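For the sake of transparency, this paper describes our internal protein records without simplification. Such a record has a labelled line for the sequence and another for the backbone structure tokens. Nothing more is needed to write down the fold, since each code stands for a local backbone conformation. For reference, a complete record is included directly beneath this paragraph.
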Amino acid sequence: MHIAKRIAAAAALAAAAALGCTAQADQTTDKLKATLQSRLPEIPIKSISKAPIAGLYEVNLGTQMVYTDASGDYVIAGDLVDTKTRSNLSEAHLADLNKVDFASLPLDHAVKVVKGNGSRRIAVFSDPNCPYCKQLETTLKSVDNVTVYTFLYPVLSPDSVAKSKAIWCSSDRAKTWESWMLDRRAPASAAANCDTTALEKNLALGRGLNVTGTPTVILPDGRRLPGAVSATELNSALASAH
């Protein structure tokens, strides 16, 4: 056989073997996921993959990582740390899995506030009655040259829903939002015929993205910053976002 043909044949065999291994690995993790989900039905399992430690599997619960053996008989709750680099592997992988495609966000469903030249961008999931969201809004006063897209995410109470509807239905959403969050000026009630389907879509979007707390900041590179981050932390994160 010509040398080029032999190389091509070897490459084809290697590819077939790799596909076989991948299929086998998928079957193993699928079976393991089914086992764990049947034994722990109250815990939603997003995905399972091999852990850096032989014999262990990483179980993605959306908000945290846990680890299990190949049979699913035992679960270890806690972070996996690389002692050589002192890096938290669980935290890093979870952050990577939870990255958001910023370009796919429906920004027309958000309240848009432009500060300075607006050259930098963030998205925020925020509840109008969340004290930490109000704290973040105060912090944002000192952050310049940023466009903030706030997805109203009323998850705390029925009043959060009412206020979100009133803000969304106002003639100047940005001004009404900041008046409430910064100055505590309650918005006028929403008109009965106002279309608030965007808020329902925001709730579905947030649940789909695993937004479990407010505020949650989404950076342009898809990373998220949970909680009322400081101006220093936000500026630093924006500087490193690509």
Remarks:
- The helical segments are 3-39, 89-97, 131-140, 158-168, 173-183, 197-208, 231-240.
- The longest helix spans residues 3-39.
- The chain has seven helices and eleven strands.
